[in-house]
Amino acid sequence: MTETKPRLVTFGISHYCEKARWALDWHGIDYEEISWAPGVHQILAKRCGAESSILPILLHGNGVTQGSDNIIDWADQNARERDRVLTHSGASVIERRADDVIGIHVRRLGFARTLPRFAHLVKPAFFSNTAVPNRLAGNMMWPITVRVIMKTYDITPSAASDSRDRLNGELDWLESLLSDGRPYLTGDRLSRADIAVASSLAHIARPADHGRFYPIPLSDTLRADYALWQDRPAIRWVRELYRDNRHTLVRAAA
Q1: What is the CATH number of the domain that holds 207?
Q2: Whether the model pTM is above 0.90
């Protein structure tokens, strides 16, 4: 019996999904990417045996692996070249900060600038690459989905300015790490810390080599927010990391 390739379940807009995708591509693991519409994903995740509705989910011969951090663990365990493993000393601490702080506030800023008045801009990014029946069901649930997202991310009138201030502090922290000229955050090669931070900030940096990642569309106010950061060393580092460590992987996986 021929073993089927793993399937990576994503939201096209999600930087957590981009993080998992990058790790699989980095290790040359052949997989099929499928996308679920928001709202519908809660039902489908339960059906496939996942513990929660969080994406990404990797469906593979040995079961279900959920969450970008766990998918990186799985990719490292299945790496053909051990010198390319992404888990280095100290990398997981930075990864958690990227996931729990940077990524959350990039998302919150983006949603605060779009969902209250321009939810139609965000919808195509969420529905990218979804199957037609999935998309139809997601369309019906979209008004509820928008309300759930706004509640989850506490989208209040001050949300954008609050998250923008928090991100300024996170960029200061990142630039303090990079101030000695290092190309990578931990060690002398790419790690899960680099992938997590760069994926989280890719919505802002808009790197040319993000592949199948669908960034948050820009409202005028969000474009103005992002413009303030484009020349910061941390954002230039994100673009350079994508150029040097993602470009060829994107071309190979396309």
Answers
A1: 1.20.1050.10
A2: yes
